[in-house]
Amino acid sequence: MLAFVSTGTCSINANQAGNSTTLAAPQVTVSFTVAAVAAGAPTIGAAAMASVTSATVAFTAPTSNGGATITSYTATSTPGSVTATLNQSGSGTFTVTGLTTGTTYTFTVTATNVVGASAASGASGSVTPQVYALGGTGPGGGLIFLISGGTTYEMAPKTWSGAGTPDATATWCDGLTDVSAATGMDVGTGAANTAAMAASSACSSNAAAAVLAYAPSGSSAGEWFLPSRVEMNAMCNYSRNPTTPAAPSVSCAGTVQNSTFAAGTYGFPNGTFWTSSQANPSAAWNPGFSDGVGYNQDKNVALQIRPIRAF
């Protein structure tokens, strides 16, 4: 029996020398082509909501490419047969757009080589794109505390670190290191600040590392970040009045945390929290939730941290 491991033209030469009981046979050559077949089915991964009309779908490349390079993958929704395509040979993640808000979807993925499309993967878990409201639950399981400029922000619960106690503590940096790219203060700058902290050798294993590693169901590592100064102020304002919080730019100083909120899953313990906003080369901003006053502290001091996520 012959086993062929690649495509192409193959020739087999056979002859028989002969002996006292068997006549000699001249060499015979048989040539044939081993053709490619469709690739194996990809393995489906996690599906998650990305926006009110889109979802992400992860997949793993099949173990067999069918003897020809895989050139693309296609994700298809059920219902609706909404598709997305990635032109690549390996594993990856789709963003499927054009979904209908409020409809529950599952997804399958196929791989395409020169022969055509493979069999479909198994179906993903279900995803329901939806409109989010202040006080609701975000796709990462957090509390929605701010909707600004078309972007929605959710905060992690106070037990996010898994320690069973409110909010982990960490230093902003190992030393008093200047991270000049982490000076954003406004809403929308926290993620970039955190990335800059993580890129600094002196700060990469500190507060930024802790929040970037956070990956509850519905989100992935790297999606959560330390809030900027104004994003943290928005969290503070929400904790004071969850029904109608003041605008992010309105100072939280001099206000008191809502007692029901404080006692709940997302309430802030007394003490100060790191933001991702550098105040000066040796210090960063850290508001106190007991009085709402903003402070700046040397970066090598361990303070409480609370991740947020934008979508």
From TrEMBL:
Q: Where is the Fibronectin type-III domain?
A: 41-131
Q: Which InterPro entries match?
A: FN3_dom, FN3_sf, Ig-like_fold
Pfam families linked to this entry: fn3
Protein name as catalogued: Unannotated protein
Task: Provide the species name.
Answer: freshwater metagenome
Name the lineage.
unclassified sequences, metagenomes, ecological metagenomes
